[in-house]
Design goal:
The complex is a heterodimer of chains A (302) and B (475). Chain A has 302 residues and is of the alpha+beta class. Chain A contains eight helices and 16 strands. The chains are: A alpha+beta (302), B alpha+beta (475).
């Protein structure tokens, strides 16, 4: 499907439900299901940006970039099914956020279909841009409730030359202090996993700094399904051994399994995080962008 | 006049009368920022607390006066230039670092804290605030937030938005809200991201939580000397294509290199057509590999010489040359007009040639010193505003430069913002529908349009009143 057919499909009236790979949530409401165009639109490796249809799978994007030794570290759990637009709309960052930053810093330009059925451009196709207000960051994590992503320009990165996952029983906070630029540090209350990437000499040096207790492993542990958003230092309260008791009871894990992203504050748990209070300003934004509440109705962001 | 007297009385009641200024000299000073645009200030106030900012905003609102937030006034696009006798709210006295959390690598600061002061204050922890505009000795963190400021090292580290976690904002109705948060993914829309770069049109930041970044353990600074601009530009593309993301990748053309050398005596080659200042940082292994690759790419693209700073003193000297460019040009002519646009990296040479041609056609002296690594051009026109008709030529050249950058697939501004300077050029890159979406975002924060009105978005972006460039203003 091309862009103009997609604009027509979203249209200007009636509820619409944007769908991607269906890896993150089950659509709610009975609106018309719409799926964004897929495919690489343009890619110039020396520019380190790529323009893709929002319906492109993350695996297809990765394959196109790998040929030039580049990548976009979106890192969804199921890249064969997850779409670029879906990852951006869901707003969840991958496990390598410690090194590459949150997913919101990846989107340079977005073309989306507005509630009025118009194609709107946010941002621009270059790596640095402060021309006008930053609608791109507003769209990331908006779950299709402000506009339906159609085509996006993403910042790409060089693919690391070396990648190593290590695991050990060490203190995750100590590991973080010892390492300069780890890609990920995970902790399940007992074991610590560390992802090191980059130059071979650096990776070897960082692995050495971790100490003898760490051994190479295939990859990260399986993640429980529900990410909770906490402060990085709340990690201390996840472990009964070092609990300071400063965190409200409902944010503690109790006996259930968890995997915490050290230095980030995301904690993957078996139970979902309860809804958090939001300033009415968020609803004002929603009402101005979607006055008739036709974009993914029933999905709550504000 | 009694209206003004009433306003002054109410502001004096809201904060100490000594921090409410309305004498003509001061109003003249605060009618400008570092751009070439002049506006008209009604009153200038210097709050010291969030509560005082709220009180000022409420008083201004009650009197039907717009407000214009202002940090250090180093902005280059007229964002802090007051229009319509606005109440100028200066944040320079809100200059305290409130809290530094070493473990979470976060600092809470007031908006008037100077960029470099923040980095100095946390250096003993091995941390720094990564955005480093060339004005970092004098620009404020609040101003950085308003403009989503960049700097040479944003190539690898990202611009201000990537380093702001939360902002406490006094909204245009005087209420207080917190955008973003210290947790991984704050609830709701990313209004923090929307506020950063909003150029004072969505409220006034009164407390900012910034991310602190570890100071890299190793760094290598190289100065490569090229006989042609084309060779230097090809080296830029080659470095990026080799999979290296340098911490900084700056280009200086022949004119600015000579001016800088005469000013700082750093040993810059005065016969080079262009020099590249390249910095790679990180751990030693990667730094060594990247520095070697940079040398190789520069050599392959015709560099005559690549100098590697041997110690921190030499590195500081090379950077002093880069960051003193504006001091250096003051010796050539009293005024300058600094442009800011971004083009795709692969179009650098083509656009630079057009930019030189524009300057020549308008008989203007032009130099280029810019962030080549991210395609962020900074054509610098040097002139004497007392010369009859020169401003008109500067203005025309500026507009033409924007047009060639946009035609090459670029954007209007990479780090200085739109402000007043480029407001009426927004239509070059945005359709009416695009501008309408931006206007809606602004309406959510400031439905009455009283916070830094008539900035960023051109007239009629959203069923707005017709706007004119203010009388007496010259852009």
């Amino acid at each position: 499907m091309d862009l103009s057919a997609f604009i027509t499909e979203v249209g200007a009236a009636g509820p619409v439900v944007p769908v991607g790979g269906g890896t993150h949530w089950t659509p709610v409401g009975d609106g018309r299901r719409v799926r964004a165009p897929d495919g690489i639109v343009s890619y110039e490796p020396a520019e380190m940006v790529v323009r893709v249809g929002a319906g492109t799978t993350v695996a297809a994007l990765d394959e196109a970039l790998a040929a030039a030794g580049q990548m976009v570290p979106l890192d969804p759990a199921d890249p064969q099914r997850a779409t670029v637009g879906g990852v951006l709309a869901a707003g969840g960052s991958g496990l390598r956020r410690l090194r590459y930053g949150p997913v919101r810093d990846t989107l340079l330009e977005a073309r989306y279909v507005s509630a009025e059925g118009r194609l709107v451009k946010a941002g621009g196709p270059v790596v640095k841009n402060v021309s006008g207000f930053d609608l791109c960051r507003l769209l990331v994590g908006s779950r299709g409730t402000l506009g339906v992503l159609a085509e996006v320009v993403l910042r790409v990165q060089p693919r690391p030359r070396v990648t190593r996952w290590l695991m050990g029983a060490g203190d995750p906070l100590a590991a973080r202090r010892r390492l300069f630029r780890p890609s990920s540090i995970l902790w399940d209350g007992e074991m610590t996993w560390v992802l090191l990437e980059g130059d071979a000499v650096d990776v070897a040096a960082e692995a050495g700094a971790l100490g003898a207790g760490f051994v190479d492993v295939q990859g990260p542990p399986a993640l429980p399904p529900h990410p909770w958003s906490l402060r990085p230092s709340d990690l201390r309260d996840l472990s009964p051994r070092v609990s300071t008791g400063t965190v409200p009871v409902e944010t503690r894990v109790g006996g259930a399994r968890f995997v915490a992203e050290v230095g980030i504050g995301t904690v993957h748990r078996e139970d979902p995080q309860p809804p958090r209070p939001i300033d009415p300003l968020h609803q004002k934004v929603k009402d101005l962008f979607d006055p008739t509440n036709r974009l993914n109705p029933g999905v709550r962001v504000a | 006049m009694t209206q003004l007297a009433d306003l002054l009385a109410d502001l004096a009641a809201a904060l100490d009368a000594k921090r409410v200024h309305a004498d003509p000299l001061e109003l003249t000073l605060y009618a400008r920022d570092a751009s070439v645009i002049e506006g008209q200030a009604g009153v200038v106030v210097f709050p010291t607390t969030t509560e005082e900012v709220q009180a000022v905003v409420r008083v201004a609102r009650a009197h039907g006066r717009p407000i214009t937030p202002r940090g250090s006034g180093t902005g280059l696009s007229g964002g802090a230039v007051p229009l319509d006798d606005a109440v100028v709210v200066v944040t320079t006295r809100m200059d305290r670092i409130l809290e530094v959390d070493e473990e979470d690598r976060v600092a809470w600061v007031q908006p008037g804290v100077l960029n470099l002061d923040l980095s100095r204050a946390v250096a003993h922890l091995g941390l720094h605030f990564a955005p480093d505009p060339s004005s970092q000795q004098s620009c404020s963190v609040g101003g950085n937030v308003a403009n989503n400021s960049g700097g040479p090292h944003c190539l690898a580290y990202g611009v201000t938005s990537a380093h702001v976690l939360a902002v406490e904002v006094v909204l245009p109705d005087g209420s207080l809200t917190l955008l973003g948060g210290l947790d991984a993914d704050p609830a709701g829309y990313d209004l923090r991201g929307a506020f950063v770069g909003s150029e004072g049109t969505m409220g006034i930041a009164t407390r900012i939580a910034v991310r602190l970044t570890p100071i890299p353990p190793d760094v290598r600074t190289l100065l490569a000397d090229f006989p042609t601009v084309e060779g230097a530009a090809a080296a830029v593309t080659g470095i990026i294509a080799a999979g290296i993301v340098p911490a900084a990748l700056e280009m200086m053309d022949a004119e600015i290199t000579r001016a800088v050398e005469a000013y700082v005596h750093a040993g810059f080659p005065t016969d080079a057509a262009a020099v590249l200042l390249v910095e790679v940082d990180g751990m030693t292994g990667g730094v060594d590999a990247a520095a070697a690759a940079v040398q190789e790419v520069c050599g392959a693209n015709g560099a005559r010489h690549v100098r590697i700073a041997q110690d921190m003193a030499e590195r500081a000297l090379l950077w002093k040359g880069r960051k003193s460019a504006f001091g250096a040009i003051a010796r050539i002519a009293p005024n300058y007009y600094l442009h800011d646009a971004v083009v795709p990296r692969t179009k650098l040479v083509e656009v630079l040639n057009q930019v030189y041609e524009i300057a020549a056609r308008h008989q203007l002296v032009m130099m280029n010193v810019f962030h080549a690594g991210d395609g962020n051009l900074h054509p610098l026109i040097v002139f004497d505003r007392r010369v009859e008709g020169v401003m008109e030529r500067v203005h025309h050249a500026g507009a033409e430069i924007m047009e060639v950058c946009v035609a090459a697939g670029g954007v209007l501004s990479g780090e200085h913002g739109i402000g007043l300077e480029k407001r009426d050029f927004m239509g070059l890159i945005f359709s009416p529908d695009d501008l309408d979406a931006q206007a809606r975002l602004r309406d959510a924060f400031d439905p009455e349009g009283m916070c830094n009105p008539r900035k960023v978005l051109p007239a009629g972006s959203r069923c707005g009143d017709l706007q004119q460039v203010p009388e007496g203003a010259w852009i």
